[in-house]
Amino acid sequence: xxxxxxxxxxxxxxxxxAAIAAGADMxxxxxxxxxxxxVTPERAAVLAARARGKLAVVALTVDVPLxxxxxxxxxxxPDWLQLHGxxxxxxxxxxxxxxxxxxxxxxxxxxxGDLAAAARFAAxxxxxxxxxxxxxxxxxxxxxxxxxxxxxxxxGLEAGPYMLSGGLSxxxxxxxxxAAPVIGVDVSSGVERAPGVKDPDLIHxxxxxxxxxxxxxxxxxxxxxxx
Length: 227
Ligand SMILES: O=C(O)c1ccccc1NCC(=O)[C@H](O)[C@H](O)COP(=O)(O)O
Known about the structure:
32% of the residues lie in helices and 20% in strands. With 227 residues, the chain is of the alpha/beta class. Helix 5 links the parallel strand 5 and strand 6. It binds the ligand O=C(O)c1ccccc1NCC(=O)[C@H](O)[C@H](O)COP(=O)(O)O.
């Protein structure tokens, strides 16, 4: 099975088409109002319709209450939900049940102890996104900060539906995949020329860099995972 590639925080037709042409598997549409990647539900609906059947569209939200999430799902009809805040297991279960879509839960990692939280969420979510923790201080976003964490912390990660994110780029994604036993990768800042401005050439280069690593089975620590 090939490594899953998600390009997060798209907002234009041009960059969506680049992700599709490059062979990405998922794109993220960002509904966090303070993000430079924020898209309105109306704009997202246009992009999601364009992507339909070509790759999976992920609606990324941060601590949005279920009724408002329902409005978003109705407007955009995403294939996946990505919960990138402090949503607990009950909320994940409720979102899966209510909206009938798979849920990805992001988990910040800065120490091996965080892998316990990741495993807890992996038991109830369809996928867990292992991301860098946001930096402290004003202006930091819950994600999309372009910061990598120490991938060696993942050496003891049990096989599971884990994807890796945080500071990935064309230059480091092969090393990240060599270190981290994950089924996929997610990138945002690393394929941008400025915050919120995705670059079609960088999207192509990033997907090519992942494909050059080869399928998951070529990474020995993942031979037993069937996502
Ligand atoms: O990207 C954002 O602006 C963002 C804002 C609020 C919550 C999550 C956000 N991004 C989540 C993602 O899925 C990113 O792709 C992931 O954090 C990695 O980002 P980066 O380090 O910039 O590649």
